[in-house]
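User: We ran a pulldown and think these components assemble together. Before we commit to crystallization trials, I'd like a predicted model of the whole complex to look at. Sequences follow.
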Amino acid sequence: MPRTTTLECPGCPPLRALTFDSLGLIKVIEARGEHGGVPKVVERWGDPHSSNCVLAASIDDSQNDPLLAVARKNGLTDILNPLNGDLRVAISKAGDSGAQPEDDGIVGLHLFKRQREESSSRSRTLLTCTTKGKASMRSIEVTKVSAESSCSTVKSWNVCASGTIAFSKVDISEKFSLFGGKGVEVNVWDLDKCEKIWTAKPPPKNSLGIFTPTWFTSAAFLSIDDHRKFVAGTNDHQVRLYDTSAQRRPVMSFDFRETPIKAVAEEPDSFNIYIGNGSGDLASVDIRTGKLLGCFIGKCSGSIRSIARHPTLPIIASCGLDSYLRFWDIKTRQLLSAVFLKQHLNEVVFDSAFADKEVANAAADAPMLEIQNGNDTQEDATETLPVKRKEAPEEKDRSKKKKSKENEESKKLKSKKKRRAKGDIHDDAS
Amino acid sequence: MGAKRKKSEGEELLNEGEKENDKNNENISKKMKKEILPSMIKNKEKRSAVHAKLKHQKKVEKRKKLKARDAAEKRALELGEEPPARMTPRTIENTREPDETVCRPDDDELFAGNDADEFSSILKQGCAPKILITTCRFNSNRGPAFISELLSVIPNSHYYKRGTYDLKKIIEYAKKKDFTSIIVVHTNRREPDALLIIGLPDGPTAHFKLSKLVLRKDIKNHGNPTGHIPELVLNNFATRLGHRVGRLIQSLFPQSPEFRGRRVVTFHNQRDFIFFRHHRYIFETKESKGSDANGKKAKDAKSEKTSQQKVITRLQECGPRFTLKLVSLQHGTFDTKGGEFEWVHKPEMDTSRRRFFL
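Assistant: Here's a predicted model for the assembly, 788 residues in total across the polymer chains.
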C-alpha cells in the first residue's frame, strides 16, 4: 500500500513576498488574515519574455521610499517600486562595458540600505557583479516622479582574473562583500576602499591525493559575528564555515546529501543556517557543530534556487525549479503553505513593510500616502507580531526563551535525528 | 467415510422431507446468516459451503441487476425514449486528485513559456531534429536489436558506438555536430532497462525507466514500417511537468508528418506511465453487414441507395512496444554530480495513489 499521509498546510501569518522567474515576471504573493491565511498571487509585473529572465534581485524594504533592484538577462538592471511595480530607473549595462550581456550576466546584486556618507540623501548605492568578475558600485539618483534619473560615480574593479563568479553577498553592516564561484576561491572585499582583504585557501588534498577543483555556488554571512564568519556551499555538496580572523582554510566543513548546494541562508542572531540543494532538499544546520537539525519535508521536487528569511516572523521561504514558492515554519520545520507560480523561479525576497490588508490596499491605491503611513504600519506590525510569536511555541511545547534551553532542546532533537544524520556526523569528524 | 456419506445422504433425505419446513424457516435462517459471517464458522467444510452459497447468491443478484438494466434500456429504445444514462465506472484516473499544476488553455504564461523553452526552435520548424543514439558501455543481445528498431522509428537518427567515451564528451561532440538530442539506451543484464533523453545544446535531461519491452519480431502479425516521417500522438500530458516531457519527446520527431506513409507513433501517458506504440493504419471501405442481412428485399426496393459504404480503420502494430516511467528531469545537459533537478521523485510525494505528476 502506498503511504497515504496528507500534508495539511496551516497557512501563514500576514506577509508579502516577491518572486522573480525565468520569464522575467515579478509576482507578488500576499497572505492575509490573522490566523492561517492562504497566500495568493496578488499582482504580476512585467511581460513574459525569455530575455527578461531575472538573474538577481535585491530589496530595500525600509519604511520610507522602499526600492527593489532587479538584474535581467538582457543586461538591464531595473529599479522598481516594490509596492506597485512602477519602474523608477533602468540602467543598461551596455553603456559602460562593451561585453555581450548574454555571456556576462549579472550574478550578484545588492541595494544598499544605509546611505553612503559621501552621497546626497536622495541617491542610492547599488553593487553589481557579473559572471566574469566585474564588480561595480554606482550611486543612482532616484527621483520620485518618473523614470528619469541618472546613475553616476561608477566605481568598478575586477574580482577575479579567471573563472566565473557565481554569487556575491554583502554583510549586514554593508561594508564588506563576498565573492566566489567556479574556479574562484571565496574572497572578501572592503567596499569602502575597494580592496581585497581576505582570500580563502583550498582544502588540502585528500588521502588519495585527489584535489577537487574549487567551485563555490552560494554563501552567506553569519550575522551574529559581523563580517568575520561566513558559510559557503560548494558544487561537490560541501558546506564550509570560514572564519577570516582565524585561518584561510575552512574552520569546519561537512557534506550534505549528494547534489550541489544551491542556496545558503543564515538565521539572524543564531548559529543556524538553512541549506538547499540541487535535488530539492532543504535542511537547517547548527553551524557551530555542523550537525543537521532537521530537514524541511514537503514534496519539494526541484532544485532550490533561493531561500529567504523573513526579517521578523519565524518563517523562511524557498523557491526553485519546481516552480513552487513554499513557506516553512523554522521552529517546527513544517510546511506552512505552497504556491504554484508556473515558471522556474530564480529569486524570492520578503517585503517586511507589509502589515495588513487595509494598509496594502491603501498602498495600491496611493503609493505616495503609503510612504507617510509607513511608520505607523510598521509599528502596528511590531506590536502584533510578538504576541503571535509567544503563542506559537507554547502550542508546540517548544519555548525557546533562554539559550541554555535552546541548547538542550537542540540536543534532544539531535538525539532523535541521530540515526538519520549519522552520515553527516561522520563527515564532520573528517 | 462410508458412514459419513451415508449420514450425509440421510441428511439429504431428511432435508427433502423438511423442505417445506425449511422454506418457512428461510427468512429466519437468512437473518441468522446475516449475523453469522462465514469466517466465524469453525468447521472448514461448513464454512466453505456457506461461503460458496453466499458467493453464488451475489452472482445471481448481479446478473439479475444487469438483465434488468439491459431490459430497461431496450424498452426505452423501443419506445423511442432516451435510454437511462449509463453509469461511468470510477477509475483511478477519473478520480485523480485535483492538481493546480495542470495546464490550462487560457494560460498566457504557458504559451510564453513554450516560446522561451529549449525546444521552441525545433517545434517551430526552425531546424530539423537530428538524433544521436548510443548505448551504455556494455551492451549486447536485446540492446542492439532495440536500437536498430529505434533507428527505424525515429527519422534522421544515427547510431554511434559508445566505446569508452564519457557521456559528457559525447554531448560535446554532438553539440559540435549539430545534433539536437541524444538518446542513451542503458542495458542491465543484457536487457534494456533505462532510457536517457538529452536535449541539446542546453535542453533538459530526462531519465526514464524502461520496461515491458517487446521487439518487433516478437509481435504477432507485425508490420514493417516504411521510411516515411511518422505522425506523432501524445496523450494525456496534462501537468506542466507532463507538458515539458511531452515537448521533449515531440522534439525528437520532425514536425511535418508524411500522411502518405500512414505511420503513427504513440506516446500514451496513463497514471504516469508512458506507453510507446508504433502502428500502421489503413482506411478500408466496406459495405456494412447490417444492410446485407436485412438485405435483399431492401435492395430490390431502394436499389442503389443501400450501398452504404462504411469506412473502417485497421491498425497493424509494427516496431517495438515499451513502457517508460519518468525517474528524474534534470535542468541542463547530463551532469550527475553538479546537476540541478527540475523534478525528482521522492518517497514523501507518494501521498496518494490518485496523485499523478505527468
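The CA atoms of residues 254 and 325 of chain B lie 23 Å apart. That may be worth checking against your pulldown data before setting up trials.

User: Thanks, that helps.
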